[in-house]
């Protein structure tokens, strides 16, 4: 029984429904130690037979037996294994991988063995030394002569220590001297106990082997035993085998990426620009939100919820603001969102009514979860202020609460008992437009008319010390302390119910939920409170900023579609320019998965490089822009956050995987024979 046997092999090609019989019943047996030449005319079916022996062709009838076991041609995996473990190929046109050095060309075959790193290196170097190429190991194939290339191919074929070497016209492209050298090497390989099967139409080449088989018109016609085969004991298998590790595919992909860097650099740059733009817009969105937050929180306390009564229809007619307004027939000069809430609707008759909050309602607010404090806030419109005989102006008077930011006090402090803070623009500047600061510490009189709790008209006329001068961007703030207010209520028997209460949350994180909750609170089945807070305002503004950010980032992301198309084109170009390489790798025993991984990982590397560059540029541009914008806004307006980076890398990953999908699939599905035949 031979080491390798062919039994009744038939093979036909079809052009449409027309059948062309190429092999018409081949029976042949080979022994280890033989160098068999299959001699025949061009078109006689020699290469077809070699592809069947080498496990590249699956569409034939008959069987191939190796070492007593019949090859299962229907099972791709066992064919991959057969090529990986048993067969080594030498081609007429060398078929070296052009972007790998000759050392790497040999190593790629060793990567599917279980040898350790050092052993693989030593074997590759030894094999290259055996074919006289020690000096050339770091050269690329295009830097070698034809004879040298064929010797690299021989070293590669021998690398994984296969039992069978298939050589398809191994000397077809060589001159006489190189032909002689290659034939000597092939003879030595057979003499070492392997089986060498060579296809040739050269009688001279055939004569240098141990046996010649003639293939004519699909039949074996006659056999000539040139000399006896080498008689050596079957050498022990040098190594075990494994599937190609994923890392090797990544490394090979990286080498190819480097090799074609000029073109790939453009693709990477294009994709990086798209990713950079997405990231910058997201960073700008973050920055704007942060800036708005900061600005609003500078003006108002973020823990505060301002609560008033819900509708004018439910008002009581006893508030001081309404009394004053009724008497004097004027609207109050109101400032700030909270104060605006305090003013109820003006009726058609021109009277203003303001709703007040009862003690029971205030108690209900105090009971809510996450409430730290509840302060009464009194607002009185049309209050007249005088310094001596000099009238400073008429303005609303309010009580100082936690909602007033101390940063609004330009000079002085917040008011204590019998003290007042006055607004710079409406009052202090009347005192002196230049030396308005000098009003600080002066005593001024405060006068207004209102109805007391018995409905009687009273005039409040008090002298207070100016403790501070305010300048708030939200509007004019002239305020007394709650202690002063309470003493007036006592002295003049004024109503003690406030028109506004200031609810302070235990933590700014609760402000928004507390605002919503208070707005929904019911007394006697009716919603009674109207609640506003800076947090809910900020949330609304943030919603708009988010919307704008997403739209801008999405527009930028459109450019990524172009990037994806560019990567697809590159990958398709890569597949077609590497078709032969795909055939070689399959012949070496790489599986479809290995080939798919090769292209997918190259595309992923393009995506990854783009994301890294895009992120780097985004950070650099953000830094530069922030330097410029800081001068205007005193804030870093572009803030790239970790989740933006994650999103960008995610996008790059999706794009590159998507772009690689079709080309990698095409590459993996290539028939190894067609791939090897590619020009
Ligand atoms: N994929 C194919 N489809 C159709 N016909 C094919 C195909 N491959 C080979 N043939 C035909 O099969 C026959 C045998 O081809 P094969 O390549 O095996 O011959 P060969 O003996 O190796 O020739 P050469 O010495 O010129 O390389 C030829 O007539 C060829 O035209």
Structure write-up:
The protein is built from 20 helices and 23 strands. It has 679 residues and is of the alpha+beta class. A six-stranded mixed β-sheet has the order 6-7-8-3-9-10, sandwiched between helices. A six-stranded mixed barrel has the order 13-14-19-16-18-17. A four-stranded antiparallel β-sheet has the order 2-1-4-5, with helices on one face. The radius of gyration is 45 Å and the shape is rod-shaped. The two termini are 39 Å apart. Adenosine-5'-triphosphate is lined by residues 13, 20, 22, 40, 42-48, 201.
DSSP helical segment count: 20
Query: How would you name the CATH homologous superfamily of the largest domain?
Result: P-loop containing nucleotide triphosphate hydrolases
The spatial strand order of the largest sheet comes to 6-7-8-3-9-10
- Largest sheet descriptor: 6 strands, mixed
Mean pLDDT: 87
Structural class: alpha+beta
- Rounded to an integer in angstroms, the radius of gyration calculated over CA atoms is 45 Å
In what range is the share of β-strand residues? 15-25%
Q: In percent, how helical is the residue content?
A: 40-55%
Tell me which CATH architecture of the largest domain applies here: 3-Layer(aba) Sandwich
Distance between the termini: 39 Å
Poorly predicted segments: 312-319, 321-353
Number of strands: 23
The domain tally reads: 3
Brief rundown of the structure:
The protein has 679 residues and is α+β, with helices and mostly antiparallel strands. The chain has a 6-stranded mixed sheet with strand order 6-7-8-3-9-10, sandwiched between helices. A 6-stranded mixed barrel has the order 13-14-19-16-18-17. Strands 2-1-4-5 form a 4-stranded antiparallel sheet, covered by helices on one side.
